[in-house]
Amino acid sequence: MEENRNMDDIEQNFLTQFSSMVTTDKDDLIKQFQSIGENLNYSTATFFLDMSNWNLQAAVGCYFDFMAFSRLPSMKFLNDLTVGKDEKVTPNTPFKQTWLLQNNGDISWPDGTYLKNETEEKKYSMPSLPPNDTTIATIEQLSPELVGPFITRWCLYTSNGTQFGETITSSIDVCQSGTLAITQQMSQLQPMACPDDEILETLSPMHQNPLQGTLEDTDMWG
Asked: In what residue span(s) does the Nbr1 FW domain sit (predicted)?
């Protein structure tokens, strides 16, 4: 991956630079270590140097290994593509929600990434999404038996259970006159409507309907 190659190049440049430096003064070593990053404080530099027996080259290598391992991916919620969104749902009724998500970070989502409700164990597998790409996630829910607001929160997790990205908060009203489930059932009886137009509207605010501006018959013939 491109970002990994860039990180390796940066690390190699620093290791080559520091391999030619010979000093045993700890303050000098700390200053040299801090020069590899703007946000490196005294305590962090001291920690990695002390852990590496004050070997500057080894400390820099350990630091980059740690940073590469600890970097988390990112996720941004772009749009709710749910069929019948904003409608209410009847109690104890299954329904689906569909969301457009984007990797707005600079590293790909790792293999094994999944989407999960914070109060349930069911997991929805997600792709290893490259930076700036988008994906559609569809989840299944069951409304509660009691009427009122039904609020759930969803997050992405790495395979080891580390949460990352924005939290998706879903809020749907549950009432006896809800129509969401009926709307979704009816949509399955009709030709599947592709959500591409809505996705394009989300990704490009300047996107216009390609049919907009075509001439009607009355315009053509007066």
From this structure: 82-174
Whole-model pTM over 0.70: no
What is the three-class DSSP state of 90? coil
Q: What residues form DSSP beta bridges with 98? A: 138
DSSP 3-state assignment of 186?
helix
CA-to-CA distance for 217 and 219, rounded, in angstroms? 5
Class of domain 75-189: mainly beta
Is the pLDDT score of 213 beyond 50?
Answer: no
What does the block give as tokens for 85?
Answer: 């969104």
Using pLDDT thresholds of 50, 70 and 90, give the confidence band for residue 32: confident
Strands (E), the chain: 76-80, 94-102, 114-117, 123-125, 134-142, 148-157, 163-174
- Sorted by where each begins, the domain ranges of the chain are 22-70, 75-189
Give the pLDDT confidence of 42-101 residue by residue, as tens digits. Answer: 888 898 899 999 998 888 888 887 776 667 899 999 999 999 999 999 999 999 999 999
For 90, what's the count of Cα atoms within 13 Å in the CB-facing half-sphere? 9
Asked if 181 and 90 touch (Cβ cutoff 8 Å), the reply is yes
Six-digit token string for 141: 């829910």
Which residues on neighbouring strands pair with residue 89, listed in sequence order? 174
CA distances from 74 to 106, 137, 160, 217 (A): 8, 15, 16, 50
What phi and psi values does residue 157 have, to the nearest 5 degrees?
-135, 150
